[in-house]
Amino acid sequence: MSHFFQTIFTANKKLNTDQLILKKTVLSFFFFFVLAGAAFWGWKWLRSRPSDSGKTSAPIRAVLNTNEKIFDGLLSDKHLTKEYPKSKAANPARVNGFLGLKTPFDSANWRMNVIKASGDTLKLTLDDIRKLPKVEITFNFKCIEGWSQITNWGGVRFADFVKAYGLTNETAMEYLGLSTPDKEYYVGIDMLSAMHPQTILCYELNGKPLPMEQGYPVRLIIPVKYGVKSLKRIGDMYFSNSRPPDYWADKKGYDYFSGL
Predict the structure, then answer these.
(1) Dist. CA 76–CA 78, nearest whole Å
(2) Are the C-beta atoms of 83 and 137 separated by less than 8 Å?
(3) 187 with 198: CB under 8 angstroms?
(4) Domain 58-252 top-level CATH class
């Protein structure tokens, strides 16, 4: 008799367990289809929104702009990128793209054109930049393609450069604009990041003059940004209170701020 009741109890328990599994399975599929439907609707809605010139929908661009305001507010001189011993730097260093470097280049006649607020233009040579106090930085250069590499760079702090050449009024503006001599590549950078103590006008890589493919004679190195902002071979430099054009943001819809 006891065996009979034990069998019934076990059967009821098994039935209840099966019912519970069925209930959870049905609920799981229900929520899966609800969430999948919501995701599909959200995707369709985003695609139907107006896009900017970089083909980024307005809602996504609004999120990116909000992120920029947040991170711009958090950035300070005390927010420093981690530095490494020079001995850990890669040699040779990897090149992160060739935009702006493919046009035939006359290095002997190169000048960096710094356009002042007054409209006057400083035409500076490599020697004009090299005579300023030199600094080096070894940090983990990060590319939007997904790779990173510890690299060593030498040059002059951008903050020292603008002070030496009387550009203090210009740096009161909100943005710095840069372009290559052939105008094929260009970036816009918020002034707080440009004036960061680790941002340099770079003319050396691993203690030697920049190779042509790394932006000889002078490039920007800005460790608080992804590599797309470290423009190679600076041709023109200017200052603005409105956002300068930015190649990857304008053409591909990338994040304008590109901060780390």
Answers:
(1) 5
(2) yes
(3) no
(4) alpha beta
Whole-angstrom CA distances from 225 to 1, 37, 184, 230, 258 are 79, 37, 20, 8, 6
Burial class (CB in 10 A: 0-12, 13-18, 19+), 180: buried
For residue 51, the 8-state DSSP code is B
Q: Which two tokens stand for residue 203?
A: 């003319």
Instruction: Please say whether the beta carbons of 116 and 167 come within 8 A.
Output: yes
Read off the DSSP letter of residue 125: -
Contacts of 61 (CB under 8 A, 6+ apart): 52, 54, 253
What is d(CA 194, CA 257) in angstroms, rounded to the nearest whole number? 12
How many Å apart are CA 199 and CA 225, to the nearest integer?
A: 10
Q: pLDDT (tens digit, 9 = 90+) per residue, 17-50? A: 666 777 778 778 888 888 877 667 655 655 565 6
Tokens for 125?
A: 């040579």
The identity of residue 96, as a single letter, is: N
- pTM of the entire structure? 0.77
| Domain extents in the chain | 1-48, 58-252
Cα distances (Å, whole numbers) of residue 118 to 19, 114, 125, 169: 80, 11, 21, 10
Phi and psi, residue 238, nearest 5°: -150, 170
pLDDT digits (tens, 9 = 90+) for 115-131: 999 999 999 999 999 99
Closest CA to 234 of 214, 248, 251, 217: 217
Round to whole Å and give the CA distance between 18 and 222: 61
